[in-house]
Amino acid sequence: MKINVNTEIALTYLLARKKQTIIASLGVMFGISMFIFMQSLMKGTNDYFEKMSFNTTPHIRLYSENKVADNHMMTSYIKDSSIKILTNPKQLIQTQGIINPYGLIKEILKNPQVYAVTPQVTADVIYTSGSVQINGNVAGVNIIEEDRMFDIQSEMITGDFRDLNRVNNSILIGKGIADKLSLHTGDNITVTSGTGSPMIMRIIGVYATTIKQIDETKSYVNITQAQNLLGKDRSYVTDIKVNVKDYNGAPAIARELETLTGYKAEDWIQANEQLKAAFKIRAVILNSVIGVILLVAGFGIYNILNMTIYEKIKEIAILKAEGFSGTAVTSIFLQQAIYIGLLGGVVGIIVGYFITLMVSKIYIGAGNLKYLPMSFYGPHYVEAICFGLLTTIAAGFFPARKASRVDPVTIIRG
Amino acid sequence: MADLALQAKNITKYFHDPVTMPVLKSISLDVAKGEFVSIVGKSGCGKSTLLYVLSTMDTDYEGEIDINGTMATGKTLNELARIRNTSIGFVFQFHYLLPDFSCLKNVMIPALRLGKYSYKEVEARAYDKLKMFGVEEQALKSANKLSGGQQQRVAIARALINDPAIIMGDEPTGNLDSKNTGIVFDLFQKLSKEFGQTIITVTHDEDFAQRSDRIIEMADGEIKSHGR
């Protein structure tokens, strides 16, 4: 094997100072393994929370928003061409929900990105049992579709959610409601909406999500029953929920659907802004920690190379006298930095992998989270090596340049 | 012209610290191929300064230097490094061997830098040189395990590895006892006589100077005598 003489000198210097080399590499190793560990933890956590949010939120929700009264509405109502000036316009309640929902669903399904669409009727209600009343809301859904989109099955505590389609006047309630009203599967509950008359429903099951607020307010009924509860006809739908194949593309598709239908389309990112904010904050914390570790590692390398250069200044001068150019000297010292970086980087990703593996076995057992969510994501490891090398090259550059500028005459003549 | 190993014209150099003052005053100098030249003079007369200017390491001067038919003045630092690598071998007062390398490696490094021969060939050549100076037994020892005389001989072997046109010595025997001085001097003479090697040394040693082909005497930044 033909080794360049610069490489040979660089390697000899590194091997002549094994301790220093190992300590410098350890610095890089810690940086890299922490990078991998923290990235894995963050991605794992983010993925977990994203997945969690899809248990309750569709990728895109279509609903009719109340609008502020404007001149167009007045013109179309009065049907003349006079100029109208509206002062202090107010919100208009959209009582009709979504017009022609089933036609719209057909249209939405034509989009190749979409894989599930389901209509929903949402109603604010009061649950009553005995003399106790609590506020909440009822989602009138096709429970089979709902299960396909949100995996209701995994949240069931008692009962069978399919009974919503089989049993007349049936309701599936959250665990919080059941606890507060002291109700069980098979009991009756009175549900009153703002517009319809009170209805007595039979509880066919109890579910629990990890979000307490949902368990204490939300219940599911059959869609036609929700329409009955509100005193509306069969075409009354308040929301259309859409799931797409790639949820990261949801915002773009939401904009498309907004133009297509004219209704407000809210994607999951808008619906979970606190989630995105948390992601961002976590990213900042993580990046600053990694940045500091790599910075420290970088200073370690910088120091060690600087010391080496002070120690070897005579030798550098002699190499230059022998005909090593400045470029060759730079190469000798930069190579040392790179080898330290490579050594630390390779050991670092192995250690990082094992740390990640070990931590992923730590039992948490909070909610439905059993183990720490860790992700084993290939690009993290590539990024880690790149960052490690970048740091070492940056740290090695200045000492190497200093070495290349050594003036042999001043050093040799003393 | 063709038989000149080194030609310097009107070399003038100033020191700027603490005040600007001339150290070399318009020095012109020719050294023929195969000549063994000693430069002598009192401390501070500028002889070492002249040698470093001639060596191309010091570029802060006025005038022109031609080494082995190549104009060295005005070249970039990297080009000068190349000239030193191919045409000049150095022997200093101290051996300046690299302590992390074996003696053999020390001798090999300039040749590996040159890249003219394969690694095996360089190794063989370096070994031959060490043998020529009677230090082949020490070839694989670390440089700092040798005696002063042995170290200086390895350093001369290193200077010779690329078959340079000129060997420059800055008091090559200044740090040696009389026995080793004798050995080193004999080596220089052998190189000059038997191999036609051009040698320029700066020395304080009267004996050493007297036995060389030519003595250039310097005083106050000027050449007093060219010795011919």
Structure description:
The complex is a heterodimer of chains A (414) and B (228). Chain A has 414 residues and is α+β, with helices and mostly antiparallel strands. Chain A has two domains: 5-53 and 275-413, no CATH class; 60-64 and 97-268, no CATH class. Helix content of chain A is 55%, strand content 19%. Chain A has 16 helices and 14 strands. Chain A has helices at residues 5-16, 18-53, 71-78, 101-109, 143-150, 163-166, 175-181, 212-215, 223-230, 250-261, 268-271, 273-311, 313-321, 326-359, 378-404, 408-413, and strands at residues 60-63, 67-68, 91-92, 114-129, 132-141, 156-159, 170-174, 188-193, 199-207, 218-222, 239-244, 264-267, 363-366, 369-371. In chain A, the strands form three sheets. A six-stranded mixed beta barrel of chain A has the order 4-5-10-7-9-8, surrounded by four helices. A two-stranded antiparallel sheet of chain A has the order 2-3. Chain A has a two-stranded antiparallel ribbon with strand order 13-14. In chain A, helix 2 (18-53) crosses helix 14, helix 12 packs parallel to helix 15 and helix 14 (326-359) runs antiparallel to helix 15 (378-404). The mean pLDDT of chain A is 86. With 228 residues, chain B is α/β, with parallel strands linked by helices. Chain B has one domain (4-225): P-loop containing nucleotide triphosphate hydrolases (Rossmann fold, 3-Layer(aba) Sandwich). Chain B has seven helices and ten strands. In chain B, strands 6-7-8-3-9-10 form a six-stranded mixed beta sheet. Chain B has a four-stranded antiparallel beta sheet with strand order 2-1-4-5, covered by helices on one side. In chain B, strand 4 (62-67) and strand 5 (70-71) form a beta hairpin. In chain B, helix 5 (148-160) runs parallel beside helix 6 (178-195). The interface between A and B is medium-sized, with 25 and 31 residues.
